[in-house]
Amino acid sequence: MIFSSALFLFFFCFVFLIHWYGISLLRNRKIAINFSHVFLLICSYAFYMAWDWRFGGLMLFSTLVDYLVGLGISARPVHKRLLLLLSVIINLGVLGYFKYADFFIGSFLDLLDLVGLSLPGNPPRESLLLSLILPLGISFFTFQSMSYTIDVYRGTIPVERSFLRFALFVSFFPQLVAGPIVMARTFLPQLASLPEFSPGKMRIGMRYFALGYFKKVVLADNMAPIVDQIYSNPALYDTAGHWLGAFAFWVQVYGDFSGYSDMAWGTAILLGYHLPENFRLPYLSTSVTEHWQRWHISLIAWIRDYLYIPLGGNRVSFFRHKINIFLTMFLAGLWHGANWTYVIWGAIHGSILVMEATYKHFLNSCRERGLCRARLLPVAPGMILAFLATTFCTVFFGTMFRSQNIEDSWLILTRMLGATSSGTLPLTGDMYRPVFYSVLCIYLGHLAGKWIFERNIQWPHIPALLEAVFYLAFIVITWEIGARDVNAFIYFVF
Prior knowledge:
The protein has 18 helices and no strands. The chain is mainly α. It folds into two domains: 6-197, no CATH class; 201-493, no CATH class. Helix 4 (80-115) runs antiparallel to helix 6 (138-154) and helix 10 crosses helix 17 (429-454). 37% of the residues are buried.
């Protein structure tokens, strides 16, 4: 069920009504909490298994492993390191088997071809690949589940003895298949109390869902045909065509992913729960470092807490610190998918972050000597450079969904720079106009968001009836200007 589909809207209306109606009928607080958890758990598994019923068993297996490991760490602290290692091996093993097995097999076969060797019997390549179906959202719920065992091991949170609450934490359907990545220490405490129905929060939830729906249906889905047309035949387009494709995919990936996050945030609020922030006006960033503090915030927070800081963070030597920065972004790229384009994408971002950190270190040294100000770049040039850097990286991010090879990525990059011969297929105004208006819409939205959220401007009081009429009109307008085809979210493949 795609969040932007009519089927999901009917499904969520059913969940919303039964959830709150059941809570209102039950006078006993403990029974009401249990009812809420059982009902949401059943709905979450039904939502997930609607894609493929076999995936439910895999998620249940991951849940059981980490639940039992948590109990084991609490009961036998002397063995907690061994139990944590068991959890990490099983979770990463399952993730690696389904997501990376064919990548490593294919890379090994490519290496043999490169050095002129072959396997005994020279079996066909297709027979050696596993061709596994990637379970939906496996990277997200695996990282969530592991965050629990790591925090229990560290003593950050107490062990969760209720399997019901723990299973709901892992499978909560608003954020299950594309994030944000929810850490146990932020979500499990919410399950200890009964969610409260608040008209104010309901209105906030509807606002966020409506905003995400607009980003997905109007921005992302309208860009999809243009992106598909250009990226499926990159050799046919010239420099202008590939810049248009880069801008179109820039719009698509932002509208798609931040739209999902907004809808997930809104649906969670409508059910009485709060999810972590995942996007914070990323295209107002004045550096790539700041961009990653505003984009996919939950992933960066997970990597920071469970990889970067354990490696020493910035409390180590100058060179070790830069290695830690590069390694974390390199692994973030690999987390996104099993393809060399992801690896290159992570390496490019890691290298840029290292250069920015080095430059900042140099400026701080100059400031201490009274030679200059400690500012990375002025605002306008910094925003432009950050935008261009992230746009270039989206070329790798875009081609990996379609061509699955580095050659097309390199062709697109060289043509964007005008370094190779141009294509012959002309572009039409029907392709330019929607991209221009979408880019303009995103930046106007960012400026409005900065005015409302970052400057703490209060929302004006809107009568409930007027807001309800607005949402009705919004649905009609969005339906008229939105894409007619319901496209799956890009991050569903992660």
